[in-house]
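Morning!

As promised:
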Amino acid sequence: MKQIRHIFCGILLLLSSVYGYAQSSFLEKAQDCEGRHSIDSARIFIDKAMTDANVRKVPEAWYLRGYIYKDLFKKYEPNNLRSAYRDTAVNDLFISYNLDPANKENKEGAFGTLKFLAATYYNNAEMVMDSVGFHWAIYGYNKYKFIMKKMNPSENFNVFDIRFYDIIGNIYSGYFFSVNDFSKKRNYLDSARKAYDAVLAISPDDYSAVYGIGRLYYNQAVNIINNLPFDASIDNVNKAQDTCIHLAKLSLPYMQKAHLLEPLKIEPIKGLQGDAVMLHEPDNYKMYSDMEKKLNEQQAPKK
Amino acid sequence: MRKLYVVFSFLLLLSANAFGQVEQAVAHTKVIFIYNFSKFFEWPQDYRQGDFVIGVINASPTMLAELNKLASQKTSGNQKFVIKNYKSVEEIDKCNILYIPESSNNLLAEVVKKIHGASTLLITDAEGDARKGAAINFIWKDNKQAFELNKSNADKSHLNMSSSLKSLAAVNIE
């Protein structure tokens, strides 16, 4: 707040000298209210002030409004991913910066607040990760990235992206495994695949994404068979088996790659065994079963 | 980010048991076939009374679970399905269907002898078994579970077979 006072003295001087005191009175009141933590009053005055075309040309005025809206967000909607207060604050702070990019002090103030707001998007995204609103997590994360990138276009998010989309892929996979409704399953599978593909686009050898895709198709194949009713006709069983083979073939290269990436992990080996069963490859099944046995023996705690 | 890892770990646990289900899928497919077969054959009068017995020799726990699930959900006309898991050939008694899993295939000749003259639909699961006494033998065709049919073996058991079953068989042995 010290910084905002400092910046703001400059605005008042500027506005008083150029446009006269009347135009700056709303701004002064807004700043005064903000200083006294009367955020709602500050909002009324700053919104009035910003209706003046001359005030709208002043970066510090936008900065003040962004700051006030940031406080409104903190007071009223700190957990709301779609908070209009925060969106306004972000927008205003960028306008403030863009009006005078050479102004170091203004930039520091605006960017400091923007970094805070970006972090709140990230935190809000985390909060909805474990609920059905996980698509909002993507929204929040993208907002976080948008702000950070705008401040520093060269900032590299690859590490964050990989971590984030791996988790999103696993969340969608989790929903895929837990629902019974077939069309919902299909949607979750597609969404998980998209998330894993986003990871692989950055890091083609990411084990979690590679294995995640293999596991999705494998499970879809198994589910199709296990959900067939007992009175399914032989024709329908045959059709289901065709689909199952198709899915096992989609799973196989990912399971193979996951095994190559992490040869000591049991899960891809089990997946490869399952794929071999579905593709009726008894030799491969035996090979992977033996491999699993050997690995289990090696990894078993010694007595 | 810590919270994300908690979620991540939970979801991995959620899906960890997924690989056990392939055995269930194989057993489930076979049981659907077996249930279908029960509808394509007609048993003599004395086999159409009381329970409809499906016997298995040394069934795996997964196969047994699937057969019991079938018994709890379906009937054969008015007959209740009863599943019997025989541990030896001596234990075999009157049953409508007898399934010999591949792991017990070495008992085939003994079983054929034991059920000779009975109206038992013998279903096997190993290459060549349809020529060794089984009416139906599970095989793999084009990577899919399929079956071969030996009608004359079914005839020997006095079972009336629906002609449409022939068209569903991957191989018909005359």
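The mean pLDDT of chain A is 89.

Hope this helps with the figure draft.
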